[in-house]
């Protein structure tokens, strides 16, 4: 029996070695995909502070608020500001058009007299506060009119992007307002006490924020999910499942050529044929994983991306995950091959189903950024179980037991596919 | 089983799911040891279905097949070790070389590497294929592929050989080579069951001809070569099966 399984493995590998198109499909395509997708998805995975937001800035105020907003945004990092104040001024239509067409993602207009509104508002508030203390309510002034900093947004930018601009502006305005208030309060206290005082500074933080990854040390060698850490395992899984096109195609070709008739009249049964085929493609899957992980370590840094970091990763767990995912992928291939009547159908159904399962399973983009309904649906995809299993090993610093919720469904999926494929192959003789 | 009978078929019926008529309709047949039996019949008569069931490639709806005392359903591996099948289609992997094809099928029959090498060399030489044995067979002519299709079934030296139209679409030289090889192995004691449309082929090769039509045996001719040649066999054939087209 083992000799016969060995014969099937050898035959499959020999045929694969001579199939240049097939080799390109299972090795070259995933390498291209992982490089392209990692570069394309690099920006969304990075913190927004690493991106460049092009801002068209117009200051009708000319005072502290206008200057403060400009300095505040420049200091925040991601904003590249083009000033169109004064000599560089443009018409309202031009200003709007340059944002609408996407030349600039944001247009900011600081209204005239914004500084005056801020100052009077701050003074009024301080007056109210101190008149309350001294019991002289008559001194409290009326609240002044409000002013609005107008923000134009390119209609094509994402919601998260708009929120980024809005929160940065809110923060700058809050700082400007607080600073003005503190200055006014210090001045008022000086008047009351007749003493020189050092004005309070709003930048002094008493409570800060410190961030670190759960399960890993910030200063350690492990890193959080970035484009490389997501895309390398993701496209490795995709590549393994995409072998369905070749595997199922070979099965149909075998039936069409008459080889199946000869095989049916030789010692050995469907289970040996399937075992041989699966073992051969499991080797292919393991070699795909090795290749793509190597690309992650060696090639992606050349494209300006972070290298795949395997330092500290439990390699036994990584191998176990790779073999289980490979087994699931090849079993899916034999299942599709068993039910496909033509090579064309095997290729179309195989590739389309893998693309759909990968899209909903969090291969293209992580599942956590999908809507709730899609997330629930995606958790049914074997590609999602595969992705989660890799995340446990590569990112979450997980233990073997933590793989069980993902590897067990994969093993059940594998066993089910094999069982159905064997029954389907056996039924060929009964037709 | 009666002494000297290699194949015993009883009450064989095959009905395909997609059809309302029986492809094989109650066939009883004995094939004696060392016999060269020809199964003749018009297109769709049930010849290929019959051979497929006898060799275990398909399961019968009813009836039984015993080969060398073994039941094809109960002991498939025992039967399969004792038979060789040359299917109607080229049943080979075109991405592999001739030697690789032979090695693959040889290993499935449990032959070791040395036996495969020795037997492959012998058969490839006998079929005139040895010079291009390490070439992918997709580059071969139809005749060469047919000859390899035949010798692949002989690799494990089966006592019984089944051939389903082995000379379809090949040139005169390849056909003559196949005829020569079949006569040689039959003389060496191999029982052969063979389907064909070529009456002159049956007349030359077969020790007995069974004529099948509508899934039933409609006639039998012992020693067709002694019946007055292919013209006489054709007369018998048309007399039993009629002159109407079967593949309209």
| Strand fraction of chain B | 15-25%
Secondary structure class of chain A reads mainly alpha
Share of residues in helices of chain A: 55-70%
Most extensive protein-chain contact, per-chain counts: A-B, 26 and 36 residues
Runs of chain B in which pLDDT lies below 50 for 5 or more consecutive residues are: none
Element-by-element helix/strand order of chain B: EEEHEEHEHHHEHEHEEH
CATH topology of the domain at 5-91 and 159-241 in chain B: Rossmann fold
Q: How far is it from the N-terminal to the C-terminal residue of chain A, by CA?
A: 26 Å
Q: Roughly how many Å is the radius of gyration of chain A?
A: 32 Å
Q: Describe it for me?
A:
The complex is a heterodimer of chains A (431) and B (248). Chain A has 431 residues and is mostly helical. Chain A is 64% helix and 5% strand. Chain A contains 16 helices and four strands. A four-stranded mixed β-sheet of chain A has the order 2-1-3-4, with helices on both faces. Chain B is an alpha/beta fold. In chain B, strands 6-7-8-3-9-10 form a six-stranded mixed β-sheet, with helices on both faces. In chain B, strands 2-1-4-5 form a four-stranded antiparallel β-sheet, with helices on one face. In chain B, strand 4 and strand 5 (70-71) form a beta hairpin. Chains A and B meet through helix 1 and helix 10 of A and helix 2 and helix 3 of B.
Overview in brief:
The complex is a heterodimer of chains A (431) and B (248). Chain A is mostly helical and 431 residues long.
How are the elements arranged and paired?
The complex is a heterodimer of chains A (431) and B (248).
Chain A: H1 2-18, H2 20-40, H3 42-45, E1 53-59, H4 64-76, E2 79-83, H5 92-100, E3 106-110, H6 114-134, E4 150-153, H7 159-193, H8 227-242, H9 244-257, H10 259-264, H11 270-299, H12 315-339, H13 343-360, H14 372-378, H15 382-394, H16 404-430
Parallel strand pairs in A: 1-2, 1-3
Antiparallel strand pairs in A: 3-4
Chain B: E1 5-14, E2 24-32, E3 36-40, H1 47-55, E4 62-67, E5 70-71, H2 76-82, E6 83-86, H3 98-108, H4 113-126, H5 142-152, E7 160-164, H6 172-187, E8 191-196, H7 199-205, E9 208-213, E10 216-222, H8 229-241
Parallel strand pairs in B: 3-8, 3-9, 6-7, 7-8
Antiparallel strand pairs in B: 1-2, 1-4, 4-5, 9-10
């Amino acid at each position: 029996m083992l000799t016969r399984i060995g014969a099937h493995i050898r035959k499959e590998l020999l045929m694969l070695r001579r199939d240049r198109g097939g080799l390109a499909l299972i090795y070259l395509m995933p390498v291209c995909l992982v490089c392209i997708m990692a570069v394309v998805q690099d920006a969304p995975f990075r913190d927004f502070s690493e991106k460049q937001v092009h801002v068209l800035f117009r200051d009708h105020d000319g005072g502290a608020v206008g200057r403060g907003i400009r300095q505040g945004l420049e200091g925040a990092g991601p904003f590249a500001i083009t000033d169109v104040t004064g000599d560089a001024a443009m018409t309202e239509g031009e200003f709007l058009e340059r944002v609408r067409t996407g030349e600039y993602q944001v247009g900011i207009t600081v209204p005239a007299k914004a500084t005056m509104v801020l100052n009077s508002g701050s003074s009024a508030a301080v007056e109210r506060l101190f008149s309350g203390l001294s019991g002289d309510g008559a001194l409290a002034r009326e609240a002044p009119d409000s002013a609005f900093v107008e923000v134009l947004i390119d209609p094509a930018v994402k919601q998260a992007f708009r929120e980024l601009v809005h929160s940065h502006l809110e923060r700058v305005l809050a700082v400007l307002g607080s600073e003005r208030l503190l200055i006014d309060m210090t001045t008022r206290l000086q008047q009351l006490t007749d003493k020189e005082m050092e004005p309070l500074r709003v930048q002094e933080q008493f409570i800060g924020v410190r961030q670190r990854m759960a399960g890993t040390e910030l200063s350690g060698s492990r890193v959080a999910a970035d484009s490389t850490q997501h895309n390398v395992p993701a496209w490795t899984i995709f590549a393994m499942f995409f072998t369905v096109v070749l595997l199922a195609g070979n099965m149909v070709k075998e039936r069409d050529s008459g080889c199946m008739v000869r095989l049916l009249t030789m010692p050995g049964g469907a289970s040996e044929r399937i075992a041989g085929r699966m073992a051969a493609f499991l080797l292919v899957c393991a070699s795909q994983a090795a290749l793509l992980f190597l690309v992650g370590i060696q090639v992606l840094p050349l494209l300006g991306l972070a290298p795949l970091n395997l330092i500290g990763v439990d390699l036994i767990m990584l191998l176990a995950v790779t073999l289980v995912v490979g087994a699931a992928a090849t079993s899916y291939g034999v299942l599709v091959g068993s039910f496909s009547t033509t090579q064309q159908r095997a290729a179309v159904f195989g590739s389309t189903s893998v693309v759909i399962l990968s899209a909903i399973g969090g291969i293209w983009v992580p599942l956590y950024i999908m809507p709730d309904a899609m997330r629930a649906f995606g958790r049914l995809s074997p590609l999602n179980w595969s992705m989660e299993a890799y995340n446990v090993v590569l990112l979450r610093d997980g233990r073997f037991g933590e793989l069980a919720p993902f590897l067990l469904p994969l093993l059940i999926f594998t066993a089910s596919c094999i069982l159905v494929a064997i029954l389907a192959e056996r039924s060929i003789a009964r037709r | 089983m009666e002494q000297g009978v290699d194949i015993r078929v009883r009450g064989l019926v095959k009905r395909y799911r997609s059809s309302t008529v029986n492809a094989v309709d109650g066939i009883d047949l004995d094939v004696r040891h060392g016999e060269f039996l020809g199964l003749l019949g018009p297109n769709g008569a049930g010849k290929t279905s019959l051979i497929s069931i006898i060799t275990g490639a398909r399961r019968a709806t009813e009836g039984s097949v015993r080969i060398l005392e073994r039941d094809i359903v109960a002991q498939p591996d025992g039967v399969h070790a004792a038979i060789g099948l040359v299917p109607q289609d080229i049943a080979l992997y075109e991405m592999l070389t001739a030697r690789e094809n032979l090695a693959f099928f040889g290993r499935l029959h449990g032959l070791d590497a040395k036996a495969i090498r020795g037997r492959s060399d012998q058969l490839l030489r006998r079929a005139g294929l040895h010079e291009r044995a390490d070439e992918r067979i997709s580059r071969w002519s139809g005749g060469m592929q047919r000859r390899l299709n035949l010798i692949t079934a002989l690799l494990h030296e089966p006592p019984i050989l089944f051939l389903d139209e082995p000379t379809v679409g090949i040139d005169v030289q390849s056909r003559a080579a196949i005829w020569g090889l079949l006569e040689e192995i039959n003389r060496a004691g191999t029982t052969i069951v063979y389907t064909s449309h070529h009456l002159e082929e049956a007349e030359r090769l077969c020790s007995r001809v069974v004529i099948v039509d509508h899934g039933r045996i409609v006639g039998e001719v012992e020693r067709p070569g002694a019946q007055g040649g292919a013209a006489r066999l054709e007369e018998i054939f048309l007399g039993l099966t009629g002159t109407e087209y079967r593949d309209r």
